[in-house]
Amino acid sequence: MVQKYQSPVRVYKHPFELIMAAYERRFPTCPLIPMFVDSDTVNEFRSEDGAIHVVERRCKLDIDAPRLLKKIAGVDYVYFIQKNSLNSRERTLHIEARNETFSNRVIINEHCCYSVHPENEDWTCFEQSASLDIKSFFGFESTVEKIAMKQYTSNIKKGKEIIEYYLRQLEEEGITFVPRWTPPSLAPASEMSSSCKKPAAPLAVVVPDPALKEGLSSEPLSTPSGAPEPSVGTPDDKLDADYIKRYLGDLTPLQESCLIRLRQWLQETHKGKIPKDEHILRFLRARDFNIDKARETMCQSLTWRKQHQVDYILDTWQPPQVLQDYYAGGWHHHDKDGRPLYVLRLGQMDTKGLVRALGEEALLRYVLSINEEGLRRCEENTKVFGRPISSWTCLVDLEGLNMRHLWRPGVKALLRTIEVVEANYPETLGRLLILRAPRVFPVLWTLVSPFIDDNTRRKFLIYAGNDYQGPGGLLDYIDKEIIPDFLSGECMCEVPEGGLVPKSLYRTAEELENEDLKLWTETIYQSASVFKGAPHEILIQIVDASSVITWDFDVCKGDIVFNIYHSKRSPQPPKKDSLGAHSITSPGGNNVQLIDRIWQLGRDYSMVESPLICKEGESVQGSHVTRWPGFYILQWKFHSMPACAATSLPRMDDMLASLQVSSHKCKVMYYTEVIGSEDFRGSMTSLESSHSGFSQLSAATTSSSQSHSSSMISR
């Protein structure tokens, strides 16, 4: 399996030429890198005007590996070929490195780039990427992989330190400025002088700002040119190392790489609104930074959020008055770590009454709104406290908990809520403080603990009776001034006290079932199953030519082919697929076939769009300007070819994808709309511009003037 690494953008707050002067001091050897024994120049080229300088070196490395392994391999040192291509005109340095030793067994490739910061020409950016592919190594493949990754990550950490070390060395020698390259005929006489010394300027990377290190200063750092501080990020939407540390926390180089690679994959394949960086990081942490597992769970969560419009729940959904009066929970300041604090008086809450009055779905939706509010508060606290805060603390008071809380439908609702939250809000619970646990608590804990993730379970702290008031109790986590009054604290807590829900508010099972269905069908999206030999098709009747058919769909499972057909006559009434083995039910996804088997393509109907192959996980938006009135059929068809498009992830994905679709079942979630010709103004260009919000997600737009269509999909 190929191991890959992708760094964030690291910024040196110094001009490119000064960074190059520091970089050149690493050769022929560098005492700060003990494993870098020596290097010899094997090829060198310099253009006549001096703008291009290419140096190829053979580098000798002493790898820190067990002596037995070196003896088996028959080598004491390993050699790498490094090619440095400096373009002084463009102010870039590209570094390519590959292993010479064991190149038939191990393939190592690295690419690094120094370039000018896009928003400040006196700053320098650095990026690097690498790949490791171990074909065979005397049966020690796993050991060699671990050694290689350990050595590489340790050198990554030292990289910036080394440049800073040589910058300080240059400053001590009085060299704080290196002139830019100019064509020989234009270079002024003063720049031909061998001296490059100028008055010393403060070195931002040499002397760290303590306030910035603490994350408390909002003042921009001064730069040698006095240019304004660039905003976080770059036009290419790349992650900056300082941004990661400020807003996401301290990550290892490999963790940074996982974040960047998964983020890039989402930008390339999941077109539309992608999660914020801190939420992507939560999914990675929940899966121990396994990109494949994190990608799978995140795609499922994104589909779930889109289908149920969870992104808009805080703005569009108003909790019923019963919840506002009898749900004994609410937000209450923050803990000592700056995490938002949620207080839940579970022992005072009538769970049976709430379920009988509202139903399971309304309670679940309320819990989702609480989690969405928690995400918002984490963002606010990150800004307020000047450090990354990605989770919240929950304080659960169990005083009053008894056997009525173990009512079976109530426990069932609790377990489902836990399941949904665990799947879609991973790593959001920083700490759970359970206070005044009664004797009945072990029974409840036995029921719910199997449904709680091991990582989450380790964050639980349980106190019986008044133990929370002693050493190691509540005061260790929450300031005395904000301990709620019902826990003998000094702070008035505005969380509702709960109490019994009046039976007059109870509703019948039929009423609750209809209400539950209404809650979770309030979505513009529909789900459909696609089988081998049984495509899903929808019919759109167009009365006026030049109407616009638009679509937005997600491929939730498997790979599909999307087609658009036109027919002058209406198909027969939709037929539900009758294959009992498929067990197709709504809302899990229906299957409708419109095109009769006796119809012939070209005689009874025609294709108006080229087939579009869509891979699992992709989100597709597009439109088609109709040329004729009649009946248009949108078809999602099973695609049996294994996924093979290039991505930034290992090729093992394609093997897994082929296994996943072996059941010959795919699933799509779609929405379509027709814009009438009388409502449509402008050309296709203006229609395409309405999708410009996806441009930052690296979306590729393809249009066909012949069919007057526009389809947007990322590869």
TrEMBL record:
UniProt KW keywords: Cytoplasm, Golgi apparatus, Immunity, Innate immunity, Phosphoprotein, Signal transduction inhibitor
SMART domains for this protein: CRAL_TRIO_N (SM01100), SEC14 (SM00516)
GO BP field: innate immune response; negative regulation of RIG-I signaling pathway
UniProt subcellular location: Cytoplasm; Golgi apparatus
A cellular-component GO term for this protein: Golgi apparatus
Domain of life according to the entry: Eukaryota
Residue ranges annotated for the GOLD domain, each copy included: 521-674
PROSITE patterns per the UniProt record, alphabetical: CRAL_TRIO, GOLD, PRELI_MSF1
UniProt-listed Gene3D superfamilies: CRAL-TRIO lipid binding domain (3.40.525.10), GOLD domain (2.60.120.680)
GO molecular-function term, one example from the UniProt record: RIG-I binding
Quaternary data: Interacts with RIGI (via tandem CARD domain); the interaction is direct. Interacts (via GOLD domain) with SLC18A3; the interaction is direct. Interacts with SLC5A7 (via GOLD domain); the interaction is direct.
Function noted in UniProt: May play a role in innate immunity by inhibiting the antiviral RIG-I signaling pathway. In this pathway, functions as a negative regulator of RIGI, the cytoplasmic sensor of viral nucleic acids. Prevents the interaction of RIGI with MAVS/IPS1, an important step in signal propagation. May also regulate the SLC18A3 and SLC5A7 cholinergic transporters.
Protein name per the record: SEC14-like protein 1
